[in-house]
Amino acid sequence: MSESLPEITVVAAIIRDRRDRLCLSRRPEHKHQGGLWEFPGGKVEEGEPLEQALARELDEELGMQGARSRPFMTVRHRYPDLHVTLHFREVTAYTGEPHGREGQPVEWVPLQELSSRQFPAANQPVVTGLKLPRQLVIPPEGLSHQDVLAGIDRLDPASQGLYLRQWSQSEALPELAARCRERGVRFWIRDDAHLATREHAFGLHLTALDARGPCASGPSPRKAGKAGRQDPRAQEKALQNFQGILSASCHNEQEIAQAVEWGAQMATLSPVHATPTHPDARPLGWDRFQALVEGKPLVFYALGGVTPDDLDTALHHGAFGLAGIRAFW
Questions:
Q1: 37-38: strand order across its sheet
Q2: Which of 67, 109, 132, 290 is the most exposed place for a label (fewest CB within 10 A)?
Q3: Burial class (CB in 10 A: 0-12, 13-18, 19+), 313
Q4: pLDDT digits 0-9 by tens, 122-178
Q5: pLDDT-based confidence at 223, cuts 50/70/90?
Q6: How far apart are CA 13 and CA 92, in angstroms?
Q7: What integer pLDDT is reported at residue 3 of this predicted model?
């Protein structure tokens, strides 16, 4: 029988300055994952509340006093020699100027430069999550494109993104995409990397993932028009050229593994609860949701029967955000 690996619980800080830069520190070479950049923090002592633990660590490491914080994301990761649960928290207030009290390098790094830094594997979903909204809103079926335009105007660009699921092959797509860009709303296109690139979409959401690759057969012509006749090799090349966030629609462990293999950075995982639109789909429930996402290098959105009020529960079970239709529209 193999020896069980040690387990630790860590709390880490998302700290922004007035220029929206992020505070990073570099791990000492002699420590686990030494030499890599990280979000500052440290081990949680037994029985210690997370906010209190982070305030203590930031005082000890960076000379920040009285740090207040709120949950940002929880990541459970399995290294070859260690199991770690990382509670990332967003710092909302503190006093003092962060500096390396233990001699470690500390830098303020713009968000767009994070991808140039090397992080521990457990930090990667957080690097992605910092670019994403908490809600992925899906327009209900049966709307006119004027209804969708009005809905885009009601969205909060800071916290809500838009998945143009039913509109990705519509003649109205250019107008809808232009309105999103005008208002700063991050939007996702369904399945077609060519369209996503052409419309400068923030994200491309794959719904036909299988062992041969994303959209290997392409969507059906009835649903996707020209995309249904697309050469899979051309689609793969377009995917390689796409510069935005790549996401995938997942329902089980196999699809999550395929999403990771094909380089997805985020995924919707559904259904969490039973939904009227998919009455035959077996709901995952929050415990199964957590078991599926644990240790996966993706940012997960909980989808299916959830409402905006479920965010705290979703965060506790390993999700970053929520996706939905009527409860969010």
A1: 37-38, 22-26, 106-109
A2: 109
A3: middle
A4: 788 899 999 999 999 999 999 999 999 999 999 999 999 999 999 999 999 999 999
A5: very low
A6: 10
A7: 59
Largest Cα–Cα separation, the chain: 63
Residue 137: what are its φ and ψ, rounded to 5°? -95, 135
The whole-number pLDDT of residue 212 equals: 53
Distance between CA 201 and CA 183 in Å, rounded? 13
Question: What structural domains does the chain harbor?
Answer: 7-119 (3.90.79.10), 135-324 (3.20.20.70)
